[in-house]
Amino acid sequence: MTLFTDFGLAQPILKALAAEGYEKPTPIQAQTIPYALEGRDVCGIAQTGTGKTAAFALPILHRLDAAPRARIRRSCRVLVLSPTRELSGQIADSFRAYGRNLKLSTSVVFGGVTIGKQERELAPGVDILVATPGRLLDLVDRKALSLRDVEILVLDEADQMLDLGFIHALKRIVTLLPKERQSLFFSATMPKTIATLADAFLRDPAKVAVTPVATTAERVEQKVMFVATGRKQALLEIVLRDEAIDRVLVFTRTKHGADKVVRSLDKAGIAAAAIHGNKSQPQRERALAAFRNGSCRVLVATDIAARGIDVEGVSHVINYDLPNVPESYVHRIGRTARAGADGLAISFCNDEERAYLKDIEKLTRMQVPVAPLPEGFSAGPVGQEPQEPARQPQQQRGRPAPHARGHQGHGQPREADPNAERGPKRRRRRGGQKAAVAASPSNGGQRQASNPPAQAPRQRPQAQPGRAQGRRDGAQVAWLEKAPR
Q: Where does the motif Q motif lie (predicted)?
């Protein structure tokens, strides 16, 4: 297939494609559309920005137009599930654009907005419903929607569904769907967990993979800069002052980190906006609108928005924090170099994130080139070997070592318990008492310390504890007795 006209799509759809300027299908479209038109289940794997939406939207529109049916109240013929609000809105917009010449209705529902309006919109029934899993189940529970008449199910960005914790919602949704249906899965990656979930949704699917699993966009130039955590903000400000950066997405690991970066950029005179899960829907829409129209060239986002941002002309992606899930790196940098354009992805990496970088290079099967820092810029203490290994076998990645939080880890030298000092002081502020840790019969009535000082500690006058005080002291003694020596 070399042209959209070769697929035998309905003339109104071809007319809409011509208005959009589409003539030749992308590889994922060329391989998927014939299977979907036959009614087969499809499991498609492709990078973001390769045209997955049109790959399932075009054959769906053709099938609905070829077999018209009266709408059933509080139901839909096609259900498209997506992980984020932004992606849901973009999918719905694509259906409306490709089906502009068809008499088909498209609705989109997601959380963060009033549910009453969505209930009224679904009351007469719709042909195509695009939804996030959480809000979809809310509508089902309120008897505002039934899924028993769904003819076609689509899961877009299926692996991101699992990353965001939608596994239980998806398992419940599949029980509400009719067994006789067509199911289409599309994702940028296909981990084993998704393959297992696909078995519950798909029947003898046609598998389409236009690129190797978890590879990055070929037209994205990638670089990494090694910099201390405390110097990342200063480096970001220097990089963003480059006039070659036209429109840039900055990714952070946390929502708090995204807001902090935006505040610091505003102080430096660089206009920026943040988009993440804590933002209301109007706030997210305003931020995206400003990013699209160019009034704000810097958008700071978390991974939840990595696949929901489809903005043309993103020249750069900056990983302010490297993701601890290597697949997220693929989705992040896929926001640039879209529709045949070139793009640049720059990652800031501190000592703690070196392990994440290795995981990314292992997944993408390539080594990210190291870029030089700006002239005269100090990266801070990067590259120094820590006193102890950065990651212990029993530690979870990205969490500080136990001794750094004042707790005892196995095999680590024990420091004095800070609560043994702070506890009595807090009690003096509350009740005015100078309470002391009670003695234990097992230690001969002597006060225990996790790391005894060279000199004996100053003895404090014993106070007769009350009932509540005795319980607190007894619990502290029990903890001291059980503490490893």
A: 2-30
pTM: 0.61
- Give the separation between CA 365 and CA 95, rounded to whole angstroms: 36
The alpha carbon torsion through 325, 326, 331, 337 (nearest 10 deg) reads 150
Beta carbons of 249 and 334 less than 8 angstroms apart: no
In order of 40, 133, 317, the CA distances from 202 in angstroms are 9, 18, 35
The Cα-based distances of 403 to 24, 31, 392 in angstroms read: 59, 54, 12
User: 144 Cβ partners below 8 Å, 6+ apart?
Assistant: 74, 115, 118, 119, 122, 123
Compute the distance between CA of residue 460 and CA of residue 106 in angstroms, rounded to an integer: 75
Question: What 3-state class would DSSP assign to 300?
Answer: strand
CA atoms of 476 and 424, how far apart (whole Å): 11
Domains and CATH numbers, the chain: 4-209 (3.40.50.300), 220-364 (3.40.50.300), 418-454+461-482 (no CATH)
pLDDT in tens, 64-76: 999 999 999 999 9
* Residue 69 CB neighbour total at 10 angstroms: 10
Give residue 326's pLDDT band: very low, low, confident or very high (50, 70, 90).
confident
How far is 267 from 213, CA to CA, in rounded Å? 41
Helix (H, G, I), strand (E, B) or coil at 396: coil
How far the first Cα of the chain sits from its last, in Å, is 73
* 363-372: pLDDT as tens digits: 888 899 999 9
CA dihedral 127, 132, 138, 144 (to 10 degrees): -10
Which of 311, 260, 304, 266 lies closest to 289 in space, CA to CA? Answer: 311
State the Cα angle at 211 between 210 and 212, rounded to 5°.
135
Secondary structure class of 386 (helix, strand, coil): coil
Query: How high is the pLDDT of residue 48?
Result: 65
Q: Which residues pair with 346 in a beta bridge?
A: 223, 318
Alpha-helical runs (H) found in 294-398: 326-333, 354-364
The SS3 assignment for 301 reads strand
Do strands 126-131 and 76-81 pair parallel, antiparallel, or not at all (unpaired)? parallel
From CA 182, how far away is CA 152, in angstroms rounded?
5
- What is the Cα–Cα distance from 181 to 200, expressed in whole angstroms? 13
Return the number of other C-beta atoms located less than 10 Å from residue 386's C-beta.
9
The residue type found at 318 is I
